[in-house]
Amino acid sequence: MEEKVLKAIQDEYPDDFAWCYGCGRLNEEGHHFRTGWNGEQTVTIYQPEAKHAALPGFVYGGVMASLIDCHGTGSASLALHRKNGHEPGDGAEPPRFVTASLKVDFMKPTPQNIPLKAVGTIQEIHPKKWKVETEVFAGDTLCARGEVVAVVMPSTFLVKE
Amino acid sequence: MEEKVLKAIQDEYPDDFAWCYGCGRLNEEGHHFRTGWNGEQTVTIYQPEAKHAALPGFVYGGVMASLIDCHGTGSASLALHRKNGHEPGDGAEPPRFVTASLKVDFMKPTPQNIPLKAVGTIQEIHPKKWKVETEVFAGDTLCARGEVVAVVMPSTFLVKE
């Protein structure tokens, strides 16, 4: 059975914020990471393409880092949105986060031929700053652990919009 | 004056190891990061493409992480190669590293319109394990700091070759 994220926070971002190479639905050449709730945890499911190799057969670490990055900011957005009384799909515009720091521990070589599943556990460390701990699985194998500290998007990002 | 890395370690990897989405010269759709010496430090110069955005005008964090990742493994390869008496271009095959851990602190939004310069400082922490601390500049602006722990490629990566 194929697992799928039905209601993703990235589907709710305004068009101006939907161009991210990782998770922007409008970036035709991007990864299109989509992150939703699974109980109190968050999930992003992603099938790497052949080009996303480190060596043939194994996923490139930068793509793993990208998955963990957007899964982190998406999870933080989901969490603050829920704290504000909203769920993806209810029509409210979600808060947008940026990454303050990103950490990845690579545990095992990640096979390229099966979907990856990032599972996030979220902690509020400040009203505008959330920590997301992520485990990335290929099937039952834990391939990487990640930690993202995400902050509500500062106004410096909006000047150029 | 355009800065350029003339002798890059990635140019010396055997063809079987030149498919990395980050730094593989044979991966047509990859970033083609190229890392060389600048005195005792290492340098990778990279011009992000328009698609590599977080928001229009700013570089995606996953691409910054990718740059730091391959700059890290490339720097470790350069360093062990030099320890073994070799420099890129002398015909010897360099050692190949994989990333054990990757950490990125995002300091400033990174503008998309100028080349990025990653500058690495390398430390041997074990004959097979090297730490690379990297600063990524856009012009004079320090946009991100990274740390990679790179290890000599284990045999588990070679089984599928």
Order of helices and strands of chain A: EEHEEEE
For the record, the count of structural domains of chain A works out to: 1
| Widest sheet: strand ordering of chain A | 1-2-4-5-6-3
Catalogue the unreliable spans of chain A.
none
Mean pLDDT of chain A: 94
Q: For the CA atoms, what is the radius of gyration of chain A? A: 15 Å
Could you name the CATH topology of chain A?
A: Thiol Ester Dehydrase, Chain A
Q: What's the shape of chain A? A: globular
Strand content of chain A: 25-35%
Indicate the percent of residues in helices of chain A: 10-25%
**Which superfamily, in CATH terms, is the homologous superfamily of chain A?**
Hotdog Thioesterase
Report on this structure:
Two copies of one chain form a homodimer. With 161 residues, the first copy, chain A, is an alpha+beta fold. Chain A has a single domain, classed as Hotdog Thioesterase (Thiol Ester Dehydrase, Chain A). Chain A is built from one helix and six strands. Chain A has one helix spanning 61-83; strands at 35-38, 41-46, 97-106, 116-126, 129-138, 141-152. In chain A, strands 1-2-4-5-6-3 form a six-stranded antiparallel beta sheet, covered by helices on one side. In chain A, strand 4 (116-126) and strand 5 (129-138) form a beta hairpin. The longest helix of chain A has 23 residues, at 61-83. Chain A is globular and about 45 Å long. Chains A and B meet through helix 1 and strand 3 of A and helix 1 and strand 3 of B.
